[in-house]
């Protein structure tokens, strides 16, 4: 068995009620992320936080330097835990995440956070393409309703579709209870 790390993607204030881009079920997902963090910390396994900021004016959410772009208090990094800043949905694109994981000797990543259909999907696929074994904690992820062709797709269906697709070829998709104490 190799070395694993928890990668917490974009659990930031703007995704919570009162934020600029609230997600369906984010509070329950964040509670599961917190459980995963506690489990990894107790086991001495790495926890890496990824935080998104949009560059420039007119950001729809996660505006650089804003309170909304801060990591939510429920999953705050502990002293010494790395925080990777990204500007694209893929947490590996133009960041040091891949190098950081390799320096730590990690070959397995557990991914949790937001949004299921965007940054979780992009990060999980990239991690697998880079050779990591990938697990996604599906109930530690959240998204929001999406619209296509005049049809609103409920968040639960968006989430299920993306978890099904990841589970087909990119990741082991499991519940938090299978990973956390």
UniProtKB/TrEMBL annotation:
Q: Which GO terms describe its molecular function?
A: hydrolase activity
Keywords, ordered alphabetically = Hydrolase
Q: List the Pfam families.
A: Isochorismatase
Q: Which superkingdom? A: Bacteria
Hydrolase in keyword set: yes
**CDD domains registered for this protein in UniProt:** nicotinamidase_related (cd01014)
The residue stretches assigned to a coiled coil in this entry are none
Domain (Isochorismatase-like) spans: 5-147
Query: Which InterPro entries does the entry mention?
Result: Isochorismatase-like_dom, Isochorismatase-like_hydrls, Isochorismatase-like_sf
Alphabetized PANTHER family for the sequence? ISOCHORISMATASE HYDROLASE (PTHR43540:SF1), PEROXYUREIDOACRYLATE/UREIDOACRYLATE AMIDOHYDROLASE-RELATED (PTHR43540)
Please give the name of this protein.
Answer: Hydrolase
- Which organism's genome codes for this protein? Tistrella mobilis (strain KA081020-065)
Native organism taxonomy? Bacteria, Pseudomonadati, Pseudomonadota, Alphaproteobacteria, Geminicoccales
């Amino acid at each position: 068995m190799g070395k694993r790390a928890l990668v917490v993607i974009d659990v930031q204030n703007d995704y919570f009620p009162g934020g600029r881009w609230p997600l369906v079920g984010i509070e329950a997902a964040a509670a599961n992320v917190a459980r995963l963090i506690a489990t990894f910390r107790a086991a001495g396994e790495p926890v890496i936080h990824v935080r998104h900021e949009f560059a420039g004016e007119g950001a729809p959410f996660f505006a650089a330097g804003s309170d909304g772009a801060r990591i939510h208090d429920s999953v705050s990094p502990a002293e010494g835990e790395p925080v990777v800043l990204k500007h694209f949905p893929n947490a590996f694109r133009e960041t040091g995440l891949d190098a950081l994981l390799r320096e730590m000797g990690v070959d397995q990543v557990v991914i949790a956070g937001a949004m299921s259909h965007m940054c979780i999907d992009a990060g999980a696929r990239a991690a697998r393409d880079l050779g990591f074994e990938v697990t996604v904690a599906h109930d530690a992820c959240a998204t929001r309703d999406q619209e296509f062709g005049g049809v609103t797709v409920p968040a639960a269906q968006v989430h299920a579709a993306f978890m099904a697709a990841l589970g087909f070829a990119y990741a082991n998709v499991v519940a938090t209870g299978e990973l956390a104490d």
